[in-house]
Every structure is written in structure tokens, then in C-alpha cells.
């Protein structure tokens, strides 16, 4: 049975622009914008579809600093913009545990579209990373956004935690 949770066109895969140091992916999720927002921007829902701990000790609000874990490693995250149900902007740190000049910015925008939601993620800031690490980081994150947004769409449309087989 075809996946009805999002568009399935190959054109919706994440695209890395090495010259600009950005990764972009847009998908359409067959659910109202408020429901997509709730899953995207509520820590307990994030843990369900992300499949890893999401910790914000001082709460989930603009300026909060916490972490998203990935494969057992916590990455620092700062919540920069929280504009329900349209925009979420995060600064995402590296393994060094710091939010610094090598951090990337992850910008989510949500638009109502044909009875569903068009969700775009733009991750930028890769040009601030050392050249040797830039390409590898962009390749890994491009693959990651392909999986992660699919997990989000599955959770939003089914209410079930996605299986994370073959997790990047």
C-alpha cells in the first residue's frame, strides 16, 4: 500500500548546496498545520517520532537551551524562534557540546497546502565548519533529513512511533 502520509515524489528528497552550505527539504504532510506543529514543537512528541531523548531543563520557549540526542550522543540545541504554528528556528551544536561558530541553524516553516501542510526545513551554517569536515557533515545531515522528516510525517498521520530501522 502506498504511503499516504506525505508526497512520495523523488523531488521531495533533501538537497545539499555545498557552495551555499545549506540543506533544504520540503515535504507535504496529509495533516492540518496545527497537528504537524504540535508534533514538531512539543518535546514529548519530538521524542516519540525522533526516537531519541529531547531535553530542555528550563522549558520549551524562545531562548531555551537543551539537547537532542542522536545515536546516544546529546547535541546542544538553542530554541531561537517559536512562532506557532508557522515557524521554528533552532541553533544546533556539534559533538564538542558547544553552541559556537560551527553550529548550524535549522529553520522549519509550515504552510497550509491543499488540505495538508507543506513543511520546509532549511539547515544553514555549514560554511562555518572546517573544510575537511563540511562535506561529511552535509552528507550525513542530508541523509538524516530524508529519514527524520519521513518519521515526523509517519507519526503525524498515524499517531504511532515510527520504526527507526536503517537509522542514519
UniProtKB/TrEMBL annotation:
Domain (Activator of Hsp90 ATPase homologue 1/2-like C-terminal) ranges: 30-156
Pfam family, one: AHSA1
Top-level taxon of the source organism: Bacteria
Record-stated family: Belongs to the AHA1 family.
Protein name: SRPBCC domain-containing protein
Source organism of the structure: Ruania alkalisoli
Amino acid at each position: 500500500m502506498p504511503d499516504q502520509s506525505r508526497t512520495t515524489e523523488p523531488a521531495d528528497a533533501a538537497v545539499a548546496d555545498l557552495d551555499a552550505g545549506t540543506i533544504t527539504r520540503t515535504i507535504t504532510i496529509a495533516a492540518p498545520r496545527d497537528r504537524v506543529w504540535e508534533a514538531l514543537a512539543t518535546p514529548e512528541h519530538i521524542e516519540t517520532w525522533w526516537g531519541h531523548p529531547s531535553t530542555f531543563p528550563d522549558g520549551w520557549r524562545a531562548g531555551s537551551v537543551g539537547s537532542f540526542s542522536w545515536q546516544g550522543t546529546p547535541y546542544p540545541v538553542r530554541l531561537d524562534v517559536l512562532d506557532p504554528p508557522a515557524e521554528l528556528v533552532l541553533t544546533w551544536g556539534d559533538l564538542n557540546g558547544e553552541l559556537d561558530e560551527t553550529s548550524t541553524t535549522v529553520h522549519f516553516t509550515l504552510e497550509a497546502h491543499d488540505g495538508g501542510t507543506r513543511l520546509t526545513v532549511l539547515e544553514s551554517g555549514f560554511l562555518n565548519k572546517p573544510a575537511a569536515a563540511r562535506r561529511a557533515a552535509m552528507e550525513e545531515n542530508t541523509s538524516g533529513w530524508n529519514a527524520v522528516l519521513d518519521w515526523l510525517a509517519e507519526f503525524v498521520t498515524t499517531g504511532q512511533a515510527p520504526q527507526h530501522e536503517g537509522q542514519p
